[in-house]
Amino acid sequence: MAPGAVDSGDEAGAGPASPGPPGGAVAAPPAEEADGPRPLGVGTRPTGHGPVDAALARLPDVDQLGVGGHLAVYEDVHDGLRRTLAALDQPAGPPTPGAGPHPTRS
Predict the structure, then answer these.
(1) Where is the region Disordered (predicted)?
(2) pLDDT value at position 64?
């Protein structure tokens, strides 16, 4: 080919290299990538608070589910965390008679 000439790809075996399969088709992922869910491998660390740890222990369950099953697990974990947080607002122990939010005045 002459200096400065552009390769048109018409010469036998001397065409420009093109990425991907012939015809511009997109290659399919390998079979092991296309089959089923792939675990995210996101771990959790213990918080030291039993109810929170119990709720968070459900998160790895999504690794065994398809995307359609993720929502139910996430909602369950969220509900457990919300109940745990709401329980912090509850007084500990049995209620004391006459003890309300304000002292009784005579």
Answers:
(1) 1-53, 87-106
(2) 85
φ, ψ of residue 61 to 5 degrees: the values are -60, -30
Assigned token pair, 51: 């109810």
Helix (H) or strand (E) holding 55: helix 50-56
Q: What is the 3-state secondary structure (H, E, C) of 3-31?
A: CCCCCCCCCCCCCCCCCCCHHHCCCCCCH
- pTM of the full predicted structure? 0.51
What is the reported pLDDT for 40?
Answer: 76
State the Cα–Cα distance between residues 67 and 81, nearest whole angstrom.
22
- Which are the contacts of 31, defined by CB distance < 8 A and separation ≥ 6? none
